[in-house]
């Protein structure tokens, strides 16, 4: 049997991702400015000045007068915020890098640089700065208390800082995840999703990113990477529906390691039987998603049966899967094509023609395959009754 290259829809993203608004972060150097000090008065004048040119003059004066030592952090922050408002992204990146030199753990700076890269549409810088934000958060979570600070006090301080920066982290995570998800090239999409999930392993989007990355590697026909990522997901979450169905499709289509394909498909059906609708997903969306997933698992079992020459059992699986997959033209065409093959193996020609005609009806990769079989049947001599 010719091995078929499948393009499997594993996940339906049944949620709308919005972008959180960046807030002031509280991770990085704590530079104290006394109320009423010359530095405080200079910063107040900067913030109250509306004229852009005058504001820049005041920021430059602040840097010249006070921008030494830790106060350089404040000066560079003023430049970054100013140029971000002016949408002068080259300057944002320039001063953001200077700020990182004096305060490598400045989360606010990382968030601002992510925002600048997003607004500019610079995916390379977006992920570079996103990874730096992830590294800052990782270092902070692992950081122990300063000398002379009790563990309980430090843990309370850390918890408060993480709470205060939650919106910032959500903003960065969503921005990277959505940007990666919408990448058109499957290989690029997979790589970006892997970078995001590696940088933010605790993100609520991390598992979903790994699942979509595995599917994207399949679409790019990079099967070693697909298996690497998919098996990594299952090691952390053995009940990952998307990955179970992906692997069931892969093994059943490949015609090798059929026991794995069968086991993954059956496990997916077991998980579906007790799956609960996530928050934010409508009943209709949930029904559509679970129906497709069940249909895909059944269709994979049918393909396993074809390889094992159990064509009667295969046809039974395909018939149950057909109405579940019908809303998706590609998946339905594949199912009907495979059912046509099983019927031909049993010489049930009339039924095979019906299934193959349905497979050829839509403009999918299975149209030409099904039509080729139909043409062969039309050219073959028919036995008279």
Note down, in words, how this protein is organized.
The protein has 385 residues and is an all-alpha fold. Among the domains are: 24-164, Serine Threonine Protein Phosphatase 5, Tetratricopeptide repeat (Alpha Horseshoe), CATH 1.25.40; 282-379, Alpha Horseshoe (Serine Threonine Protein Phosphatase 5, Tetratricopeptide repeat), CATH 1.25.40. It is built from 18 helices and no strands. The protein is elongated and about 100 Å long. The two termini are 30 Å apart.
Using DSSP, what is the number of strands? 0
Largest sheet: none
The name of the CATH superfamily of one domain reads Tetratricopeptide repeat domain
Helix-strand pattern: HHHHHHHHHHHHHHHHHH
Structure class? mainly alpha
- What is the mean pLDDT? 90
CATH topology of one domain: Serine Threonine Protein Phosphatase 5, Tetratricopeptide repeat
List the topology elements:
Layout: H1 38-48, H2 52-66, H3 71-86, H4 89-102, H5 107-120, H6 123-142, H7 151-164, H8 166-181, H9 186-199, H10 206-219, H11 223-236, H12 241-254, H13 258-274, H14 283-307, H15 311-325, H16 329-345, H17 349-361, H18 366-379
């Amino acid at each position: 049997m010719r091995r078929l290259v499948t393009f499997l829809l594993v996940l339906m993203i049944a949620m709308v991702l919005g972008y959180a608004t960046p807030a002031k972060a509280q991770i990085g150097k704590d530079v104290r400015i006394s109320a009423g000090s010359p530095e405080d008065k200079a910063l107040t004048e900067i913030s109250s000045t509306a004229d852009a040119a005058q504001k820049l003059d005041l920021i430059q004066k602040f840097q010249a007068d006070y921008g030494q030592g830790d106060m350089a952090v404040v000066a560079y922050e003023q430049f970054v915020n100013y140029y971000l408002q002016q949408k002068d992204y080259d300057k944002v990146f320039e001063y953001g890098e200077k700020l990182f030199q004096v305060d490598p753990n400045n989360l606010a700076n990382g968030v601002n640089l992510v925002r600048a890269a997003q607004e500019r549409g610079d995916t390379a810088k977006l992920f570079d700065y996103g990874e730096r934000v992830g590294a800052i958060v990782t270092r902070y979570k692992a950081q122990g208390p300063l000398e002379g600070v009790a563990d309980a006090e430090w843990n309370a301080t850390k918890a408060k800082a993480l709470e205060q920066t939650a919106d910032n982290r959500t903003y960065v995570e969503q921005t990277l995840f959505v940007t990666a998800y919408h990448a058109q090239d499957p290989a690029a999409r997979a790589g970006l999703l892997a970078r995001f999930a590696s940088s933010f392993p605790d993100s609520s989007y991390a598992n979903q990113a790994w699942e979509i990355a595995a599917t994207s590697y399949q679409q790019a026909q990079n099967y070693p990477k697909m298996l690497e990522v998919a098996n990594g997901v299952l090691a952390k979450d053995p009940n990952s529906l998307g990955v179970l169905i992906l692997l069931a499709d892969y093994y059943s289509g490949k015609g090798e390691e059929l026991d794995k394909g069968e086991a993954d498909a059956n496990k997916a059906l077991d998980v579906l039987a007790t799956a609960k609708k996530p928050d934010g997903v409508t009943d209709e969306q949930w029904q559509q998603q679970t129906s497709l997933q069940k249909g895909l698992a059944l269709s994979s079992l049918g393909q396993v049966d074809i390889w094992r020459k159990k064509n009667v059992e295969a046809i039974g699986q395909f018939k149950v899967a057909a109405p579940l997959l019908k809303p998706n033209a590609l998946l339905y065409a594949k199912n009907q094509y495979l059912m046509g093959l099983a019927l031909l193996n049993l010489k049930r020609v009339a039924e095979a023609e019906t299934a193959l005609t349905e497979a050829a009806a839509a403009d999918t990769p299975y149209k030409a395959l099904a039509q080729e079989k139909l043409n062969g049947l039309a050219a073959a001599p028919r036995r008279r009754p």
